[in-house]
Specification:
- There is one protein chain.
- The protein contains five helices and six strands; from the N terminus they run ααβααβββββα.
- It has about 120 residues and is of the alpha+beta class.
- The chain has a domain of about 60 residues.
- The chain has a three-stranded antiparallel sheet. Strands 5-4-6 form a three-stranded mixed sheet, with no helix packed on it.
- A hairpin with a 5-residue loop joins strand 4 and strand 5.
- Helix 1 crosses helix 2.
- It is globular, with a radius of gyration of 15 Å.
Length: about 120
């Protein structure tokens, strides 16, 4: 297991370091969101229940937060990031983080729909 910021967070929280927990939290250091099914595929975790159990723990400890989404599955992103907004691909439904275009507004949620770069290349 290579060292990444996820290692320190897990250890400092007093959580047991497992291969699945490390792999799941490490995904959240990418500037995007994840749902449980995507995480299972990406981390090759054996069961979806293992993914959900780890997501519950990571959310409880404040490492990840749920994100507004137009799909039924809950999507999560890393917590404690500087304010930003999101865009969801109309084709693949992935959600990406984008810099806030409305910095002058104190409290807001901005959610845009577009076509992501991967789907645009497929067209």
């Amino acid at each position: 297991m290579a060292h990444c910021p996820a290692d320190s967070l897990i250890v400092e929280a007093g959580l047991r370091m497992t291969v699945d927990r490390h792999a799941i939290l490490a995904l959240f250091f990418q500037p995007r969101t994840w749902n449980a099914r995507e995480i299972r595929v990406q981390t090759k975790t054996r069961t979806l229940s293992t993914v959900y159990r780890n997501l519950d723990i990571l959310e409880k400890y404040g490492f990840i937060v749920p994100v507004l989404s137009l799909e039924e599955d809950i999507r999560y992103e890393r917590a404690l990031q500087p304010h930003h907004d999101h865009t969801q691909c109309e084709d693949c439904k992935s959600i990406s983080c984008i810099p806030c275009p409305a910095k002058e507004l104190d409290a807001h949620t901005l959610f845009l729909q577009s076509i992501c770069q991967l789907c645009a290349k497929k067209s």
